[in-house]
Amino acid sequence: MSVTLVLLPPHGPATAGWQARLEQAVPGLVVLQPESAPEAAQALAEADAAYGALPADLLAHAGRLRWLQAPQAGPPPAFYHPALVAHPVQVTNMRDTYTDHVAAHTLALVLALARDLPRYAREQARARWAPDWDPGAVLPLGEATALVVGVGAVGAEVGRLLAAFGTRVVGTDARRGGPVPGFAEVLPPDALDRLLPEADLVILTVPQTPATEGLLDARRLALAKRGAYVVNVGRGAIVRLDDLAAALSSGHLAGAALDVFETEPLPADHPLWRRPDVIITPHVAGVGPHASERCFAVLLENARRFVAGRELINVVDKSEWY
User: Fold this and answer.
1) Which residues 6+ apart lie within 8 Å of 231 measured at CB?
2) Which residues have CB under 8 Å from 281's CB, separation 6+?
3) pLDDT tens track of the chain, all 322 residues?
4) Which CATH class is domain 3-97+289-308?
5) b/e string for 154-177 if b means 16 or more Cβ within 10 A?
6) Residue 172: which of 206, 199, 197, 201 has the closest Cα?
7) What are phi and psi of 285, to 5 degrees?
8) Where are the domains of the chain?
9) CA-CA distance, 145 to 288, in Å (whole number)?
10) What is the pTM of this model?
């Protein structure tokens, strides 16, 4: 008996050829690739599984759906709409498919902040030789404490890399405890307020969930150590940007590096664009080679497991969005 998997539209170059490759690699799997929402609705009526985003209007057509593969590690919050959360379908994500890229980007941001590289880049653009010999202009990583909020795949790798610089690394995580390589300790999320005053670097790699939206707001920024730096490569809604801008303007924070934002693109008139103590990258931390093949590998592995009736990998708690 065959199993039907629907590759939901829209389709792009990244998924080109997946239909044929999946059918060839997984005996008993029939893969449909509808090109429009009406075609998708028709295909879903007989589908056992699907890949992509499944809004409520399409989900209503999926009478026998048992597995949905999300196309990202952390899809947008709208992906986990109430109807999907209530539906018995099992959801898996693309966890750990671009950990190395995000971790490397995070370290680049940290090093740029620690050595004040943005200032030298501005001076280079003016062809101006302007060394800063003030020792206080540098954050010595070997004497610093980094707080990693979210010790999943990315957070754990960031901590491991920072530890190589001699940084003392602590973390908070809702699911992970015990020893983690490179970390002095990993504590539950309720330890965040206690750890903030000790951290020279606050690095956010936590996913956006109902519990993490607005996690770093005015109250928690006030708890942060004076002169600390904030780095966000998790999700934009975790940090309240207006509160962050106020903490920077008051001098409480030394700087910030942001790859994700509450509103994307970040509006051109937002004050963070013009702050010399802020580094902005436009949600590109996950960019790097092999992304498509890594995602295909997860889909293929789960397709094989699904057809064989085995436990899937990267299973999500839909109520928590990860």
Assistant:
1) 106, 109, 110, 113, 201, 202, 203, 204, 256, 257, 258
2) 105, 109, 257, 258, 259
3) 799 999 999 999 989 999 999 999 999 999 999 999 999 999 999 999 999 999 999 999 999 999 999 999 999 989 999 999 999 999 999 999 999 999 999 999 999 999 999 999 999 999 999 999 999 999 999 999 999 999 999 999 999 999 999 999 999 999 997 899 999 999 999 999 999 999 999 999 999 999 999 999 999 999 999 999 999 999 999 999 999 999 999 999 999 999 999 999 999 999 999 999 999 999 999 999 999 999 999 999 999 999 999 999 999 999 999 9
4) alpha beta
5) bbbbbbebbbebebbbbbbbbebe
6) 206
7) -60, -30
8) 3-97+289-308, 99-280
9) 29
10) 0.95
**Count of all residues that appear for the chain in the document:** 322
> Which of the listed CATH numbers 2.102.10.10, 3.60.10.10, 3.90.180.10, 3.40.50.720 matches domain 99-280?
3.40.50.720
What is the set of active-site residues?
Answer: 235, 264, 283
Tokens of 300: 């293929």
